[in-house]
Amino acid sequence: MGLLACQRPPVTFNGIDITGAEYGADFHLQGHDGKTYSLKDFRNKYLLIFFGFTQCPDICPTALSRAVLIRKLLGKDASRLQVIFITIDPERDTPELLAQYMRAFDPGFLGLWGNLQQITEVAKAFRVFFNKVPSGSSYTMDHTAISYVYDGNGKIRLALKHEQTAEQCAEDLRNLMQSAA
């Protein structure tokens, strides 16, 4: 009976708890800063990873704007969160363009890039769908609109739905950070 009093209540989340998922195990992509990154480079950091493209008219800028608000809502814990944007449009999203795009939201955000084969492999490993769709003389991209959250041990933990508010996402991150403490 005494042991039960010491146990923490189960943590509940607004997002989808995917703790123990067998996907999203790693990536090896170039950052907009020219360095190559993988999950191990972010040990002791919580990660918020989103797949998108810089020419996206609404979903991607909304997700990144929400990430700015999440960091603000986390207050002193904001430094524990690294936001990563992985392009699904390497044809147009050069490292230079990704650097500009990240700075437009937060200079601490990291844009990751690779060739089409690398991006396709990483997206498949994360179960992210993307597809090039012709649009007039150009194209747009259809894609999954989920943000993935990793804990400080590099384990995938949450899938945040696009319709979740910044407040709900920040609450999930706070709960995740506190459950690890």
Automatic annotation (TrEMBL):
Record domain Thioredoxin: where: 18-181
Keyword check for Transmembrane: no
Domain of life, per lineage: Bacteria
Record-linked CDD domains: SCO
Listed Pfam families: SCO1-SenC
Keyword Membrane assigned: no
Record keywords: Copper
PANTHER family linked to this entry: ELECTRON TRANSPORT PROTIN SCO1/SENC FAMILY MEMBER, LINALOOL DEHYDRATASE_ISOMERASE DOMAIN-CONTAINING PROTEIN
Family: Belongs to the SCO1/2 family.
Protein name, per record: SCO family protein
Source species of the chain: Undibacterium hunanense
